[in-house]
Design brief:
Largest interface: A-B, 18 and 21 residues
Distance between the termini of chain B: 46 Å
Oligomer: heterodimer
Largest sheet of chain A: none
Strand content of chain B: under 5%
Helix content of chain B: over 70%
Number of helices of chain B: 10
Order of helices and strands of chain B: HHHHHHHHHH
Number of strands of chain B: 0
Structural class of chain A: mainly alpha
Distance between the termini of chain A: 51 Å
Helix content of chain A: over 70%
Number of domains of chain A: 2
Number of strands of chain A: 0
Order of helices and strands of chain A: HHHHHHHHH
Strand content of chain A: under 5%
Chain lengths: ~110, ~190
């Protein structure tokens, strides 16, 4: 109990409970209007490289991988990028064919 | 790409080759991978060397500089290669049409000694690669012939034809057992 209290005292409220943080954020943006998100930092940071790598490693479909890169690409480090390529090399034949179409245009952002 | 470690460079090359991205737009990325591979060559594990050679050969992007570097790094370390890595490396150099006699000698010696560890695809690819490269290796062909003789039923039709082609191209006579099993294997393949 003492340990839990000590942890609670040291940990900011938003880190203690993600659902509470999300709800708080939704109420906040609802009150401030839709532009609130443009001016204020969201309470949940993008995942760190280790978390990104975990997400990338678990992805088996080409679309999932491209979505992850579209969402968090700016936070990708070189390990995330290499893992992404490696996963893309293991997708199904139909996904490979989908990626190949239009000279791999869907992969253009990964190439840069 | 320059921040990628050896494994990342090799995995990326392997993935892009598997995706078969050959257009002009991908040329600069292949160049970047090549530069990174050359810079990291001393850090490559045997699997990275085999995968990198396979990737560049498959994509038709093998350059003299890269293949020479892979050959130089691999020749003295053939003992550390898995049977599949040995077969894939030989296949890559033969496909790229890049002469690497010291590497083929090393792969030939290693594959002969470990021929029982080779699966039908490895046996067929190794024979095909040595024949395609025109690298004489009678001891290796003897070993592949003897090993294949009792395992023809495990060979796929493509592996049977590649092995037959390789023995013919190398001018290496198959033993009686291999000929007999070959006939049986081919008849079974035709039925399939």
């Amino acid at each position: 109990m003492a340990l839990r209290l000590a942890w609670a005292a040291r940990t900011p409220l938003l880190q203690r409970s993600a659902p509470v943080a999300q709800t708080t954020w939704r109420v906040f943006t609802a009150l401030r209007g839709p532009t609130a998100a443009l001016h204020t930092r969201a309470p949940t940071d993008p995942p760190n490289p280790k978390q990104i790598n975990s997400l990338v490693s678990k992805s088996t479909r080409a679309r999932e991988l491209l979505d992850l890169h579209a969402k968090y690409g700016e936070a990708f480090n070189e390990i995330n990028l290499a893992t992404g390529w490696s996963r893309l090399g293991k997708v199904s034949a139909s996904d490979r064919s989908w990626l190949r179409s239009d000279d791999g245009a869907r992969l253009a952002t990964l190439r840069e | 790409m320059q921040k990628f470690d050896a494994q990342a460079v090799s995995n990326t090359a392997h993935a892009i080759a598997k995706l078969d991205l050959r257009g002009v737009a991908w040329g600069s990325l292949w160049k970047e991978i090549e530069r990174a591979a050359l810079a990291r060559r001393r850090e490559f594990e045997p699997q990275h060397l085999a995968n990198t050679a396979w990737a560049f050969a498959t994509a038709g992007r093998a350059t003299h500089a890269l293949m020479d570097a892979v050959a130089e790094e691999s020749a003295g370390r053939a003992r550390e290669f898995t049977p599949q890595a040995l077969a894939n490396t030989a296949w890559a150099f033969a496909t790229a049409g890049h002469a690497a006699p010291a590497l083929f000698d090393a792969i030939g010696k290693e594959s002969t000694g470990r021929v029982r560890e080779l699966n039908p695809q490895n046996l067929a690819n190794t024979a095909w690669a040595f024949a395609k490269a025109g690298h004489a290796a009678p001891a290796l062909f003897d070993a592949i012939g003897m090993e294949s003789a009792g395992r023809m039923d495990e060979f796929k039709p493509q592996e049977l034809t590649n092995t037959a082609w390789a023995f013919a191209k190398a001018g290496h006579a198959a033993t009686g057992a291999l000929r007999r099993d070959w006939d049986g294997g081919c008849r079974a393949g035709v039925r399939v």
